[in-house]
Design a protein that fits this description.
With about 170 residues, this protein is mostly helical. It has one domain: Arp2/3 complex 21 kDa subunit ARPC3 (Orthogonal Bundle). The chain has six helices and no strands.
Length: about 170
């Protein structure tokens, strides 16, 4: 029950930050920070795929409702949650405990940044492909995906560096 309440608190904080602050920032018309990806990236590895996908869908849907977007965050977040364990497995050695929560202390900086970069890139590609719903504007798609991935990754790294110092 305690884990559920902690996860719910983290869910509410990240959803509020995304919808009230970061969802309104669009640098140069392309780059947007998707801070709520922290919730999906930091899910415990032992959580079932269905549990991860339900949390991600609920978070994406919450962002969609308050951001007035037609389900694209829910779809992209759910797909990321589905793929997350496969991506995480690329950076975990066999000796690491099953119930880990991905962080720089467990994965080290290089592996954690790579894990977060791949997840963020996958999320941004799905999100902007659904938003544009066409490949006829490849430059716009590449600029949106690339700039949002880099900006989000920057915020994820900053968060992780503060999180690592506090413990």
């Amino acid at each position: 029950m305690r884990n559920f309440l902690n996860r719910l608190k983290y869910f509410i904080i990240l959803a509020a930050l995304q919808t009230l602050l970061f969802g309104h920032i669009h640098l140069f018309g392309y780059a947007t920070v998707y801070i709520y990806l922290l919730f999906i990236l930091k899910m415990p590895r032992f959580a079932t795929r269905n549990e991860q996908m339900m949390w991600a869908f609920a978070l994406g849907l919450t962002v969609d409702i308050f951001g007035n977007t037609p389900g694209i965050n829910a779809a992209a977040a759910t797909m990321l949650a589905f793929m997350r364990n496969y991506i995480l497995a690329m950076f975990i050695s066999n000796g690491i405990n099953e119930d880990l929560i991905p962080s720089t202390r467990v994965l080290r900086w290089g592996s954690y940044v790579s894990y977060a970069a791949i997840c963020t890139l996958l999320f941004a590609f799905i999100l902007f492909t659904l938003e544009l719903f066409t490949f006829s504007m490849p430059l716009h798609l590449l600029l949106s995906v690339g700039s949002s991935t880099l900006l989000t990754l920057l915020f994820l790294i900053v968060f992780e560096s503060f999180n690592g110092q506090s413990k």
